[in-house]
Structures are given as structure tokens and as C-alpha cells.
Design goal:
The chain is an alpha/beta fold. It folds into 2 domains: 174 residues, HUPs (Rossmann fold, 3-Layer(aba) Sandwich); 94 residues, Pantoate--beta-alanine Ligase, Chain: A,domain 2 (2-Layer Sandwich), CATH 3.30.1300.10. The chain has a 6-stranded parallel beta sheet with strand order 1-4-3-2-5-6, with helices on both faces. Strand 3, helix 3 and strand 4 form a beta-alpha-beta unit. The structure holds pantoate (PAF).
């Protein structure tokens, strides 16, 4: 596996591969790689001849008081894992390579509306940071396709919308969430959980499934189910942030014609903020806000 730190070197390598007619995939990450990231790389390898993985802890997507400074850095282990799954190139630029101006003068990419709700409301500026760095990575690498985990469902929608609105010639592929055996979604932030918190954490996914099952059985009052889920999560020891039943297409309020739903949830548990979601298709049932 080739390791590159500068944009110039990366572009030279990509140009060489392009000249040979190679198809190029990009998997953007912030490192501390786990099975979820490796599943993105494995999928990328089935779709492209060259797979580039970026590891860049993006300061712009962290708010004040968040974990930018303490975000887990496991670079040596990450590189070994990437070699083990046959990634072609690790791109790990320093912050000064990606952000060449002081914060106040940075060009930013904003996807309004969708960036300001749910996780965007709890983490102001987060999705501007994500859209900006992903746009930069797309411009640096110019991949044919790029892969993101569905665990960060709202992030995936923000990136899809940015790509569409700015006519970016790149295919966005969402890859299903990888879970621990007890259902907890794999996440770098699971490492913040104490033993006790780790034993509670799977209740988030369990609750999503209970609400999903109720919807499949025909339960229709979304407000009531969201309230039920929040009190269930609070009783289990989480501090619920949000729990919403939404259209999987664009995270809008579902109406009668909407057949594809996503249930999105975020909770605090000790030092960790956990997010998760499940998607479901409903055949012809009528649902409503109470
Ligand atoms: O999902 C992540 O790890 C990050 O938000 C991303 C997409 C790599 C941008 O920094």
C-alpha cells in the first residue's frame, strides 16, 4: 500500500492510474478504523480497480467542547488493517495541507436546511465542516465513486445533496451499518463507553427495532411512538437527543405516499454521543402524526 501526505503526490499517483484506465474509489475516514470502515473498503474493491482511503481528522466538523483534541489516533494499526484488506493507497494529509487559510478566511460548503436539523441542530456547523472537507477530498482525488456508511444517515443525505447541487461527477454509495453481535453499531466513539455503558448501548438498536416492528404491524401514530421510544431510552440510562420517524428519501415528514422510512436516533451515554438508524419499507399502510 502506498502512503501519501501531500495533494501534489496524490494527484501524480491518481494521474498515473487514470492514464492506465483504472477506475478509482475513495473511502473518506477520520481513522481509528473498525469493521465498518473495512466493509467500505471491501465493497470499494468490488467496484473499482484502485481504492484510496483518506484518514483526516477534520477540525472543521468538530464544535467547541467536542472531542477533536482527543479523537482516537491509531494510525499504525489503521495502516495495518488497510494493508490486510488490500487498499491501494492511504492519503493522510496534515491539517495545514487541507486548510491553507486561517479559519475566518476559509471557503466553506453549506447544504442548507438538511444540515440544520437533527444532528445539525445539536452540533451547529458540523455538516458545513463535513460538506467542506468532503468537497475538498472529491476535488483532490476526483474519484469515480465514493463510499459512506449508512450509520451516518444524515451525513449521507447531506453529501448526496451537495454532489447533486454542485454537479459533482462522482457516484455516492451508501453501505449498510456493521454491528457488534449484540446489535450496537460499530463506531470509533464506542471506545468512550465504560463497561456499564457498553452493556446499555445495544438498547438503542433494540428500541429502533421495536418501533420498526410496531410500524410494520400497522401502528400509525408517529408522535406517540417517538415519545414512547424517548422515555424507554431515558429509563434505560441514555440522555435522548432525538428520535424521529422520517422519509428515507430526504428526511422530511413522511406522508401517506411515503413507502420508505428511516428511524433516526441520537443519544448521549456518558462521554459518548451515539447515533443509529434503521430503514424500513411499508406496503400501503397509512400513518400520521397524532
Ligand atoms: O464519517 C466520517 O468519518 C467523517 O464525517 C468524514 C465523512 C470522513 C468527513 O470528515
Amino acid at each position: 500500500m502506498i502512503t501519501i501526505e501531500t495533494i501534489l503526490d496524490l494527484r501524480e499517483q491518481v494521474a498515473e492510474w487514470r492514464a492506465r484506465g483504472d477506475k478509482i474509489a475513495l473511502v473518506p475516514t477520520m481513522g481509528n478504523l473498525h469493521e465498518g470502515h473495512l466493509s467500505l473498503v471491501r465493497r470499494a474493491l468490488t467496484l473499482a480497480n484502485r481504492v484510496i482511503v483518506s484518514i483526516f481528522v477534520n477540525p472543521l466538523q468538530f464544535g467547541e467542547g467536542e472531542d477533536y483534541e482527543s479523537y482516537p489516533n491509531t494510525l499504525t494499526e489503521d495502516a495495518d488493517k488497510l494493508i490486510s484488506v488490500d487498499a491501494d493507497l492511504l492519503f493522510m494529509p496534515p491539517v495545514s495541507e487541507v486548510y491553507r487559510k486561517p479559519q475566518a478566511e476559509l471557503t466553506r460548503v453549506e447544504v442548507p436546511g438538511i444540515s440544520d436539523i437533527f444532528c445539525g441542530e445539536s452540533r451547529p456547523g458540523h455538516f458545513v465542516g463535513v460538506a467542506t472537507v468532503v468537497c475538498k477530498l472529491f476535488n483532490i482525488v476526483q474519484p469515480d465513486l465514493t463510499l459512506f456508511g449508512e450509520k451516518d444517515f444524515q451525513q449521507l443525505i447531506v453529501i448526496r445533496r451537495m454532489t447533486e447541487d454542485l454537479f459533482m461527477p462522482v457516484e455516492i454509495i451508501g453501505v449498510p451499518t456493521v454491528r457488534e453481535v449484540d446489535g450496537l453499531a460499530r463506531s470509533s466513539r464506542n471506545g468512550y463507553l465504560t463497561e456499564r455503558e457498553r452493556s446499555i448501548a445495544p438498547i438503542l438498536y433494540k428500541t429502533l427495532n421495536e418501533i420498526g416492528d410496531a410500524l410494520r404491524r400497522g401502528a400509525g401514530d408517529f408522535d406517540q411512538m417517538e415519545k414512547m421510544a424517548n422515555s424507554h431510552l431515558a429509563a434505560a440510562g441514555f440522555i435522548p437527543d432525538y428520535f424521529h420517524i422520517l422519509s428515507a428519501e430526504d428526511l422530511s415528514e413522511p406522508d401517506e405516499s411515503c413507502k420508505s422510512l428511516v428511524i433516526l436516533a441520537a443519544v448521549y451515554l456518558g462521554k459518548a454521543r451515539l447515533i443509529d438508524n434503521i430503514q424500513l419499507s411499508l406496503g400501503g399502510s397509512l400513518f400520521y402524526r397524532g
